[in-house]
UniProtKB/TrEMBL annotation:
Keywords: Transferase. GO terms for molecular function: aminoglycoside N-acetyltransferase activity. Coiled coil: none annotated. The keyword Transferase applies. GO terms for biological process: aminoglycoside antibiotic catabolic process. This is Acetyltransferase, GNAT family. It holds the Pfam family Acetyltransf_9. Residues 2-157 form the N-acetyltransferase domain. InterPro entries: Acetyltransf_17, Acetyltransferase_Eis, Acyl_CoA_acyltransferase, Eis_dom, GNAT_dom, SCP2_sterol-bd_dom_sf. PANTHER family: N-ACETYLTRANSFERASE EIS (PTHR37817:SF1).
């Protein structure tokens, strides 16, 4: 029988060994790096209660582990607590023994029992976690562009300056002001930002206005040819800005690197970034269909899961769901987390949702939990789920209303990796 519990300081080394074996291409295998990771994980475990490591034991032996994160996320117009899981690792000698399944089951119940309505993770295999009820998040877009294709802002270079570890608090405040206005963003702490400076390859520049940091860039130089040491690209690890003007200043800084940098590579949830480029092509010269130029690559990353349907609507009691009026019966099928297999009646009055005890309703809509999780996050709309047969409705005349209830102004954006 398995036991999952918080790791002690002395057990972190065993977990680090499992992680290194589980992800041999992710971590530098040197003893120096192993000691460094062990020290970092131990520091987190002893001084950061919002990011703790847990281990799964059978007969006194650790077979796997994970790190749980207590986050605050902007969901639509409301900030809510969200649970995250990362560093999920299984002992290489104990694969296919349901270790990961038990860890994730514990993770889901851990946060549900603490009153959370939603959790999130970055999947090593999306299909594996979709079977556990996780819904797809926004696609990550990789844009690759010449510096000269970026917009120019005069005198921008004079306004930029390097940031260091002493600027962590300013970076936290800058990032979290953006969280206040951005659906899907997760608040950062000083410990989370400090990790940026742990990597000597990272460089950070920022822009201040009225004495406050209003934008910053985290970047590194990358090269695909060691012999041509003067030809390299800039990979943008993170780009944070408060408004259109501060974005222009950051992009002008990148444009000014044209004499030394071949390409700028940006990973972002912003699917409209190509509107900023004078040439939207990514340099691959690939075509899709009839003269459709390849502009960016896309990938599915972060996934979300509702672990308590009722709690989500209670948390969003001040959110306006499209100004709609409707009494809806919401039925959720959750095979993996049976306590979340539920039907509730929700009264929407001028867009404000209230859970009702009564059994009468105008329309019933039904989802699998993975589809509903993506719907409430705004990564897919109701019309699409219904068209694909992934949602059911008792009265087709209400399709438009239900679509407007769950419509979002933008898809979620997440800048936190965990």
């Amino acid at each position: 029988m398995s036991m999952i519990r918080l790791l002690t300081e002395n057990e972190i080394t065993d977990f680090v060994n499992i992680v290194f074996n589980a992800y041999p291409k992710v971590f530098d295998p040197s003893e120096e790096n192993r000691r460094k990771i062990n020290k970092r994980f131990t520091g987190i475990q002893t001084s950061n209660p919002s990011q703790n490591f847990y281990g799964l034991y059978r007969e006194g032996q650790m077979l796997g582990g994970m790190q749980l994160h207590n986050f605050i996320m902007k969901l639509l117009s409301i900030k809510i607590p969200v649970g995250g899981v990362g560093s999920v690792a299984v002992d290489f000698l104990h694969k296919k023994e349901n270790v990961c399944k038990e860890l994730i089951t514990y993770f889901l119940n851990h946060y549900r029992n603490r009153g959370y309505g939603m959790v999130a993770l970055y999947p090593f295999r999306p299909n594996f976690y979709k079977r556990m009820g996780f819904g797809y998040g926004s696609k990550m877009n990789r844009y690759k562009t010449k510096p000269a294709f970026l917009p120019e802002e005069k005198a921008a270079r004079k306004e930029m300056f390097y940031l260091s570890i002493k600027d962590i608090n300013d970076m936290v405040e800058c990032h979290n002001r953006l969280v206040d206005t951005t659906h899907g963003m997760i608040e950062k702490t000083a410990i989370m930002v400090e990790k940026i400076f742990d990597d000597p390859e990272n460089r950070v520049v920022g822009y201040k206005q009225d004495g406050k940091l209003r934008a910053y860039l985290v970047y590194r130089f990358v090269s695909d040819d060691d012999k041509r040491f003067l030809i390299y690209d800039m990979y943008i690890e993170e780009i944070i800005y408060e408004n259109a003007q501060t974005l222009k200043i950051l992009l002008a800084f990148l444009r000014s690197q044209a004499d030394q940098v071949r390409d700028i590579i940006i990973d972002t949830h912003d699917e409209y970034f190509h509107y900023l480029l004078s040439d939207p092509r990514n340099g691959s010269n690939n075509f899709l269909g009839t003269l459709s130029h390849e502009s960016n690559l896309q990938g599915l990353g972060i996934m979300y899961r509702v672990v308590n349907v009722t709690k989500i609507f209670e948390s969003l009691h001040n959110h306006n769901f499209g100004g709609q009026n409707c009494k809806m019966r919401l039925s959720i099928n959750d095979d993996f987390l049976s306590c979340n297999n539920t039907s509730i009646t929700i009264q929407f009055q001028e867009g404000i949702a209230e859970i009702k005890e009564s059994e009468d309703y105008e329309v019933e809509v039904s989802f699998d939990i993975s589809g509903f999780s993506s719907l409430i996050m705004g990564t897919v709309n109701f019309n699409t789920l219904y068209r694909y047969g992934l949602a059911k409705i008792s009265d087709k005349g209400y399709i438009g209303i239900i679509n407007k209830i769950f419509m979002t102004d933008e898809k979620p954006k997440c800048t936190v990796r965990f």
